[in-house]
Amino acid sequence: MEPIYATGMAAKLRSQWDRDAGLGQNHNAVKLLGQDYESLRAQCQQTRTLFEDPLFPTSTSSLGFNELGPRSSKTHGVRWMRPTEICMRPQFIMDGATRTDICQGALGDCWLLAAIASLTLNDDLLHRVVPHGQSFDGGYAGIFHFQFWQFGEWVDVVIDDRLPVKDGKLLFVHSAEGGEFWSALLEKAYAKLNGCYEALSGGSTSEGFEEKCPPQCLYMLNFFRGADLFSIIGRAIERGSLLGCSIDITSKFDQEAVTFKKLVKGHAYSVTAVEEVVYRGNMTKLVRIRNPWGEVEWTGAWSDDSREWDNVDRSVRGRLQNRSEDGEFWMSFSDFLREFSRLEICNLTADALQAGQVKKWSTSLYQGEWRRGSTAGGCRNFPATFWINPQFKVTLKHPDSPGQSDCSFLVALMQKDRRKKRREGQDMETIGFAIYEVPREFVGKSGVHLKRDFFLTNASSARSELFINLREVSSRFQLPAGEYIIVPSTFEPQKEADFVLRNEVSDRSHVLRAQLCCVSLCTDKDLKTDGFGKESCRGMINLMDTDGSGKLGLTEFHVLWEKVKRYLQIFRDHDVDKSGTMSSYEMRRALEAAGFKLNNHLFQLIILRYTEEDLSVDFDNFVTCLVRLETMFKTFKTLDTDADGFISLTFFQWISLTMFA
Questions:
Q1: What angle do CA 261, 262, 265 make, to 5 degrees?
Q2: 512 or 647: whose pLDDT is higher?
Q3: Whole-prediction pTM value?
Q4: Torsion-angle region of residue 190: left (phi > 0), alpha (psi -120 to 50) or beta?
Q5: CATH class of the domain defined by 534-660
Q6: pLDDT (0 to 100) of residue 104
Q7: Which of 178, 206, 375, 497 lies in the 20 to 30 Å Cα band around 165?
Q8: Over the stretch 592-612, which tens digit does the pLDDT of each residue have?
Q9: How far is the C-alpha of 367 from the C-alpha of 499, rounded, in Å?
Q10: Which of 82-91, 457-466, 549-558, 622-631 has the lowest mean pLDDT?
Q11: How many Å apart are CA 186 and CA 51, to the nearest integer?
Q12: Which residues are catalytic?
C-alpha cells in the first residue's frame, strides 16, 4: 500500500501534534516519507521479493544533478548492484564496526566520512545510528534502515541495498576489506535524506557529527594555543565525543592540495586518540588522526615508519605503531597545532569539556523561519528591517560559581534543508545572530517586542563570531545574570530559509520563548483603493450579522460603519511612507494596533494572502484582513465557553467555520 501524504496547514498541525506526543524522540523516530522499516521488510519476506525503494530509485536523479548528473562522465557506465551481486559472502558488519570500514570513493564527502569514523569509537551511539539486527543472513530482504538526528529529532531512513557500481567497484564509500557494506549503505541513507548523493559533496565535520547525535554542546575551535587543549581533547575522547580537524584553505586552488608532508588542505580528518609516551627521557604528547580516504598519510615525525618510534619502549611501540597504509597515523601534538587550523568537537554531554565540578545543562530547541516581507530582516547593517527578524528571549539566573555574576550558555543557529535545495541552484545562506540585554522597563514581562528604535540606539551584548554560509553558527558566551534577546538573521534581508535555534544554559537557568517583532508608527495619506469587493462585503456582513438573517439592519450597519472608520484611522496612522498602501512591515504594526497579536507563521500567511506582487496592501485588502481576523477571534471566544483557550468541533462545525466565517 502506498503511503498517503497530508498537505498544507492540516499536515503542519498533525505533525506538531505528533511531535508533542513524543514523535522524533529517541524511542520513536520520525519515519522519512512515511516508510516503516518493519512493515516493508515483513511484506517483502511474505512475498519473497527483495525491496526496491520507489522513493529513491536506481536512476541518475538519485546520483546527482551536475557533476553526477545524467550527462556527466562520472556517471557513465554506473550500474546499481546489491552486495549479494558484488561478492560471494557480503557482510553487513564484519568483526565490529571500525574506522577502517570507511574509505572514501568518488564523492567529496570526507566531512561525513570523518564523522562516521569517529562514530565507530562510541558503540552506544553507533548502534543508535546503525540499528542492531541487520544482516545479509536469515531474513534478508534487500532492505536496511538507519537513524539520523536532524534538526532536533531522530529520523528513520529506509533504503534498498542497491548501490552504485562502476568498473566492478563501489563508486562511493567502501570498506577496506571489500566485503563489508554497512558504511556504504549508511552513506546511501544519508544521500536519500538529502535528495541525492551529489548533495553530500562538501561540508564541515561538525555537520556530519550533528546528524549522528543530539549535539548538546558543539564547540568550533579556531585553534588556540592553550596549554590545556591536549587534556580537553583527551577528556572529550574518553566521554565519547566526536572530533574532527582540518586545514583551512586560502583559495580555491588549495582545496584538497597535498602538503609536502602529505596532509590534505580543506579535507576533513577525524581525531581518534591521544597518548603521552616517554621519548628520550621526556613525556611527549601524541595525537592519532585518520584520513577517510583510507590512504595518504602524514610523513613527518611520529608517522608510521618514522625513526621516533625506535626510541620508545617496545611494548608501547607494539601497542601504538601502525605500519599499514590505512589512512591512520600519529603525529606530535606540537605538529598537530602547527599544521592544522581547526578542531571541531561534538559533545554528547554539554559538560564534556568542563574540568573539575560537573555542571548540569538544559537545552532548548526552537524551530523558526525567515520569510520575505515578514520575518527576513537581514543583519544590523540593515537597520530599517533588522527588527522584523524573529526574536527569542533567554533568562540567565544562576552564575557559574558563587561570588561571580557571569552565566555560561551556548547559542547555536542551524539552517535547515539547504542540501536538498542544491538541485534548485540554492545553497547555504549566510547566517549569524546577535544578543541584546532586555531594557529595564521590559524585564520580567512576557511578550517583549524590541522595536527599531531600540536597535538603533543600543549595542549588542554579544554576537556570533561572524556571519558565514555554513549550516550552523555556534558560540559559547558568558554574560551577567539577566534577560537577553537573541536575534538570528541572514546577512542580507529578504533571504528565505528555515532554521533551528538551540540554546544551552547551565543549572536550568533558562526560559527561551519565541517573540514576535511588532511596531507602531503614524502617518496620514489619501488611500489607494478600488473600493470594497464582494469578499470584503461578505466578510463585513458575516461579522455584524448577529441575527443570522444574512442582512444588516440599521443598528448593525451603524456599528459596522464605526468599525470601518476605526480601520481607516489605523491604516492612515501606520502608512509610514504615505504611499496610500501598506507595506508588509507597516501591516504588522497596524495589526497590533488593531488588537491582533499574531505569531510569525500567521503573519506570513496573511502576507501571502492579502498582499499584491510588490508586497503592498491596499485599503480594501486591509479591511478584508481585519474583518476576517475579528470574525475568527469573535467566533473562537464564542465557542470557548469556559475560557480555557481550547474548543472542540465536530466535522460539520469545522466545515461551517472554515467555509463561511
A1: 110
A2: 647
A3: 0.62
A4: alpha
A5: mainly alpha
A6: 72
A7: 206
A8: 998 888 888 888 888 888 888
A9: 6
A10: 549-558
A11: 17
A12: 110, 267, 291
